[in-house]
Structure formats: structure tokens, C-alpha cells
Amino acid sequence: MVYEKKSKISCQEVFNKADEFFDQGLGLDRDKEGECSSYTGGGGHVKISCCPDDEKSVVEIETREWDRMVKQFLTEI
Predict the structure, then answer these.
(1) Predicted pLDDT at 27
(2) What does 16-61 look like in DSSP terms, one character per residue?
(3) 2-76 adopts what CATH topology?
């Protein structure tokens, strides 16, 4: 599933919050490549990309098996 949201925080803040959120003992391994962060484990993955857009950021998250957690994360950014 792919989710997209415009956020009022910067991309760097999005990635920082993602690191905090998905590093809650969920058993996910993190991999950072350029403008994307990926978290894998538990039979699925979460891939976050972010692009600056004027005063906002456009955040796109692709996930498999982690939809509930991704939806919760999106409410926090």
C-alpha cells in the first residue's frame, strides 16, 4: 500500500521522527539511502521518501504488513 501526506515539517524532521517512531522495539532494521529511509522486518517493510514543497514536505510511504503503524505515524507528522 502507498500513502501520501503533505506535512508542515521539514524532510529532515520527518526522517528524524520516523527513526524515533519505528525504533520502538518493533524489530525493524533501518537503511538510509539519499532521500529515502527504509525499515524492514516482521515479514514486511516501510519505505519513506520525502520531497520539499514550498513551506511543506510531501511524504510518501510504501508499506507491506505495517499499514496500521504507518497510519499512526502519518497522524503524528
Answers:
(1) 85
(2) HHHHHHH-SSS-PEEEEETTEEEEEETTEEEEEEEEEETTEEEEEE
(3) TATA-Binding Protein (3.30.310)
